[in-house]
Amino acid sequence: MNIFDFSVATNWLDNLLQSVMPGWAATVIECVIIGVLLLAVYSVLALFYIFYERKLCAWFQCRLGPMRVGPWGILQSFADMFKILIKELIRLENIDRFLFALAPYLVIVASMLSFAVLPWGKGLQIIDFNIGVFFMIAASSIGVLGILLAGWSSNNKYTLIGAMRSGAQMISYELSVGLSIMTMVVLAGTMSITGLVEAQADGWFIFKGHIPAVIAFIIYLIAATGETNRGPFDLPEAEHELTAGYHTEYSGIHFGFFYLAEYLNLFIVSGIASLMFLGGWMPFHVPGWEGFNGIMDYIPSVVWFLGKAFFVSFIIIWFKWSFPRVRIDQLLALEWKYLMPIGLFNLVLMTLVVVYGLHF
Amino acid sequence: MKKEDFKDNEYIDKLVEELNASGANVVVGSIDRLINWGRANSLWPLCFGTSCCAIEFMHLGAARHDMARFGFEVARNSPRQADYIMVQGTIVHRMAPVLVRLYEQMAEPKYVIACGGCTVSGGPFKGSYCVVEGIDKILPVDVYVPGCPPRPEAMFYGLMQLQRKMKVERFFGGVNRQEKIKDFLAKHPEKAEAMK
Amino acid sequence: MVDLKEKIGKLCAAATFEDGEVLRVCVDAKDWRALAEQLKNDAELNFDYLVAVIGCDWKETLGCVYELTSTATRAMLEVKVTTADRENPMLPSVSDLWKVALLQEREVFDFYGIKFIGHPDMRRLFLRNDWVGYPLRKDYDANPEINPIRLNLEENEDDSVTYVEENGKVVEKKYKLFEPEDYVVNFGPQHPSTHGVMRLRTLIDGETVSRVVPMPGYIHRGIEKLCESHSYPQTLMYTDRMDYMSAHQNRHCLCLCIEKALGIQVPRRAQIIRVMMDELMRLSSHLLSYGCMTMDMGATTAFFYGFREREQILDIFDKTCGARMSLHYNVIGGVVADIHPDFIKDVRELCAIMPERLKEYHKLFTGNVIAQTRTKGVGVITKEEAINYGITGPSARATGYSCDVRKHSPYAIYDELKFDEVLETAGDSFARYMVRMREIEQCVSLLEQLCDLLEKEEGNEICAKVPKLIKLPVGHWFQQVEASRGAFGVYIESDGGKNPYRMHFNSPCLNLIGVVDLSCSGYKIADLITITASLDYVIPDIDR
To answer: Nearest CA of chain C to the CA of A52: how many Å?
Structure first.
């Protein structure tokens, strides 16, 4: 493994800071740098994702997509950002002001927290602790609270229906996401994110875990789409039923937060999928093909990670634009009657596979 | 499109003249320009179609004409999130209060395009007992697009005119809500108490 | 076939008869109810389909003309019911016999102020509830100061009233449509999937729809009143703007009606062109309906596919008619201009690609498991309900009810053409969707036959000789055609002048919203969207 280790750079910076100032100051400065970087990456990635989806769906629909703003329209989402920043925040009467203002921040904080634990590349990770997966699942489920509050506090019938739908939906699908991640944790034997990636050095889990891993991957894809409220499970904001769902009453940057978080959540679930099943930032290796593996190692780990995440996002965007939306009762039936029992069975299967050493 | 390709430039020229006459400082001016670039290139419409023009608007969004190229495609169904309302189709007496309410629900800065003969003047239904003869009777209109229904190309032309208008407007001290409230209070001093 | 005159004369001694293209029975308000029950229930007469209720103001009297048809024998009958009371006109309601009258009688009340005794919900249909006067009466005061543009929202929307006869006296009974504790959600007038400005006041219980009260009128433009002040050729332009998805068929219908009154024979070449345009329009309309239904259900990409082919049809229209949408192509006596030289070639090209494209649509949407589970068994309408509620077109044919005007009373050259009436039996949203998709195939086959016929007629005239000033003789005429969404009817009453005395458009979509409550109650909110999308109504056609 001769892939570039980013910890060299981060350690260097850490040592530099430690040598010129007391330890606590160094930590504070590092935190600030990380925070700023995180925010910057977060927003740039969200803008990229908005552009990515618009171009992709245009492609599915025999259109061109954004073309006029910048070459191939790449500045389109920046224009949108400027616009949305200066839009008026409408003050509404007869709403719960505090909760109404709090909700978009809850959503954005939740996605930011789970965004923070993703392994970006070798040595490029903000915190690495032994229950990283657990933290990620916990943090990402704060988002549902924000959506519920947004719908509830707006004092609007559409938003209320949207909020209730999202409550039912996200809590149900959280289960399947958790179960499929658990299945992979059983295979890896660790909950540490670095540990998970390292365990895939000699083969991605989707290959190593064969049948149960593939089942878990499919369940994860469906459930993650459900959890991020994307089509065909976009019931909480079902445009053609509830105008704009839970965020009907939000304007300006508050709406912008929901909009950004939606796209970022897409990236996060794709990131988790690539971490759990596709080897995180691990390059693609075929045992025995030394030359090939060497070439693969030359591609930086960040590119590997982003590439895999974008690929999974592509699949999710693909079926969002092709499938009709499911109905609320079908949605819940799918989860409780199919996905969860299969997930539980799959967990047992994976345990057996691991116990008897049937995996590669 | 070049300036010469547009038909009616007097209105825009007048706006530019006004802007130059009052003057702006360099910093505010360039921020204005940046913001206006953003605003003009990210016009999100409110889906509001009452009749035939709405179908042509769908064609505007469909593959042949594809308004996504200009960044117009994020059609919002909630007026709170839209930038302009393109009134497509006749407005009748029963609809008029609904339209005004929708307009009021939109966040500043907001624009109105009167699309089609009916919204410009009542069109073929002029003289009917319950048709509003021109939405400019109830809303401030920025761009008029004539036609029955206007072809998608005409709608593009109207939208591009709106873009031009936005680009020469001034955001600070111009089209944002604070300024409108000031104007409103200057006209109606008795409402000042209620606004607080 | 029974002798209607003799039979009805026995049932109602006071009835008088007028011969015309259809037998017209004239009765007084007090005899109407008893006669109506006989007409509906008598096994021999069996007039189970009420086509239209047409209000009219005959200066001395007010009243209605009822167009009746028997779906079994295809016999037709007109009943004219009058009342001399202009201050407080009242007629007995027949809405319990023919449910289609529920909306049609409200329309008459809105326009003429005729109250229907026994109608459960006697509110205004199209106009604001604070509107002063009844606009289609001949003595209506059109002064804009009486009815200015009111910018306040309507109040007391829940108030409804019904008139019941008790002990020989008519009593007014007020009631509320919804209780204060009801959770009522407004779908519309500004809502993405009402396809215009329809307002569905929906009572919901959790996610389940309990009751839907449709409130049209947000695009009521007063076309029928406008027609009375225009000459006949001028009235033609309104037909293109009612159901803009069947502009050609509607205009064809009005032309046929006027030609029938004038006794004009339309040249064969013009008839072929008209029929071709009708079928192209139907094709484009079904493509739009495919696109909108799939988009309402969330499959956005399918919408773009439907619109891709629609653009191609609009190009054909553009070349020949000079416009994409409001086409204004049919005129009295024929068509306004000859076809574009590329017309036949373009149509043949379209016919050649459609089967391939249809396969694509089915692959993308029809076969999808989500699409199937969401549409199958949702919003079932039975054949009897379809007849009783007077719905026609693809939505009715999905119930197995054969109601294609092109088959039952062929007009233009439809009797020479070979085509099948597409019927499904399930009556659910999927059946309605499938009827449209299968009708696209029929359209293509019709267009291919028509191309051959048109080539034989190359160079013949396209318009008959028509007098400069068109005046219809005194009388009344009713004509139906099969528009994209069902049977579209035109009723003209003439007093011999150059303007029509009364012109009524009997639109298929008004009847379609009558079944929304019936078909949506008990289903989920998402199903409401599916069902309304599969019924596929066009709002300006409802409101006119």
So the answer is: 16
Identity of the residue in B42, B76, B177 whose CB atom sits nearest the CB atom of A244: B76
CA distance C287 to chain A (A): 16
Would you tell me which residues 285-314 of chain C have a C-beta closer than 8 angstroms to some C-beta of chain B? 288, 291, 303-304, 307-308, 310-311, 314
A195 at interface of B, judged by CB pairs closer than 8 A: no
Spatial separation of the C-alpha atoms in residues C123 and C199, rounded to whole Å: 15
CA A147 to CA A138: how far, in whole Å?
A: 16
- The two tokens of residue C71 are 């779906």
Adjacency order of strands within the sheet including B111-115: B45-46, B84-88, B111-115, B143-145
- Interface contacts (A, C; CB < 8 Å): 81
Distance CA A228, CA A232 (A): 11
This prediction has a pTM of 0.86
**Inter-chain touch B78–A249, beta carbons under 8 Å:** yes
For residues B92 and B50, what is the distance between their CA atoms, to the nearest angstrom? 10
β-strands C62-69, C49-57: how paired? antiparallel
Max mean pLDDT among A2-16, A23-37, A277-291, A326-340 falls in A326-340
Predicted-complex ipTM score: 0.84
- At residue B173, the pLDDT reads 62
Structure tokens given for C128: 């604001």
Q: How far apart are CA B91 and CA B97, in angstroms?
A: 10
Q: What are the pLDDT digits (tens) for C44-99?
A: 778 888 888 888 888 888 888 888 888 888 888 888 888 878 888 888 888 888 88
Q: How far apart are CA C175 and CA A70, in angstroms?
A: 61
Q: What is the DSSP string of C470-486?
A: --PPSEEEEEEEEETTE
Residues of chain C with CATH 3.30.460.80: 4-115+123-154
What's the rounded Cα separation, in Å, for the pair C345 and C320?
12
Helical (H) or strand (E) element with B105: helix B96-105
Give the CATH fold of the C223-543 domain: Cytochrome-c3 Hydrogenase; chain B (1.10.645)
Residue at token pair 């053609």: A240
Query: Which strands form C24-28's sheet, in the order they lie side by side?
Result: C16-18, C24-28, C76-83, C62-69, C49-57
pLDDT at B23: 63
The set of residues, in sequence order, having a beta carbon less than 8 Å from that of B141 and lying 6+ positions away, is B112, B113, B114, B135
| Structure-block tokens of residue A206 | 């989707």
Q: Of all residues in chain A, what percent are helix, strand and coil, respectively (each to 5)?
A: 70, 0, 25
Name the burial class of residue A36, with classes exposed (0-12), middle (13-18) and buried (19+) by CB atoms within 10 angstroms of its CB: exposed
- Helices C429-456 and C343-361: crossing angle in degrees, nearest 10, is 160
Whether the pLDDT of residue C19 is over 80: the answer is no
For A189-289, where are the alpha helices, taking DSSP H only?
193-198, 205-208, 210-227, 239-242, 252-276
Which residue segments constitute the domains of chain B, with CATH numbers given?
Answer: 8-195 (3.40.50.12280)
Q: Measured in whole angstroms, how far is the alpha carbon of residue A63 from the centre of its chain?
A: 27
Tell which CATH classification among 1.10.1380.10, 3.20.20.140, 3.30.460.80, 2.30.110.10 matches the domain C4-115+123-154.
3.30.460.80
Interface residue A157 vs chain B (CB under 8 A): no
Maximum distance among all alpha carbons in chain B? 54
Encoded amino acid at A216, one letter: A
Q: Name residue, tokens 């959600």.
A: C185
Count other C-beta atoms under 10 Å from residue B23's C-beta: 7
Lowest mean pLDDT among A73-77, A354-358, B94-98, C7-11: C7-11
Q: What is the DSSP string of A162-215?
A: HHHHHHHHHHHHHHHHHHHHHHHHHHHT---HHHHHHTTTTS-HHHHTHHHHHH
